[in-house]
From TrEMBL:
The keyword RNA-binding belongs to this UniProt entry's keyword annotation: no
Assigned GO CC terms: mitochondrion
Keyword Transmembrane helix: yes
TM stretches of this protein: 133-154
Keyword field: Membrane, Transmembrane, Transmembrane helix
Domain of life: Eukaryota
Protein name as it appears in the record: NDUFB8
Pfam families registered for this protein in UniProt: NDUF_B8
Amino acid sequence: MASLRSIGRVVSALRIISVGYHARKIHTGRPLSAYWNKDWAPGPYPKTQEEREAAAKKYGLRIEDYEPYPDDGTGLGDYPKLPDISMEGKDAYENWDIPALKRNFGEPVHAEANWLREDRMSPDVVATMRIPIWQQFLMFMGIMGGTALLAYLVSPIKLHMAVMPKQYPFNELCVEKGLKDEGKPIIHYTFEPAD
């Protein structure tokens, strides 16, 4: 007992001692070196060969691979027109720098990258499908239409548990149902032998 009492004294003494944790402060004020949206915006549409070469160098592409989007007023400027290759269409076993996006460091991002992800429709995969989309749609409509037709054809068949009408006490609640009460109890069953 004495040993337990001494352990209790040590534990209570340790509770009194305050342990100071010193953590580094995180400053959330102004960032020291950050980008502005203007740094990410594409430049103007290249009109000369020198501007095309500068834009190709800016996006890390060879001059022969660089082709800007057409200058149709969409605001894409000198951004490169990359092929529509989705994440699903890229090699899953390649050693990517960013495996979640199947991208390498410094690789330019497609202008429509939000619909080329793995959880979206893949135009490069759809083009090489074994069964075309229109045949898949017809198969879907055939299955769903056949199921709906079968449900419509068998709907007149009543499938339910066979039950007797509900029995109420004394006079079948004639007054509550709006019927004339004759004052006689209704006998649903009896223990007397049948005549």
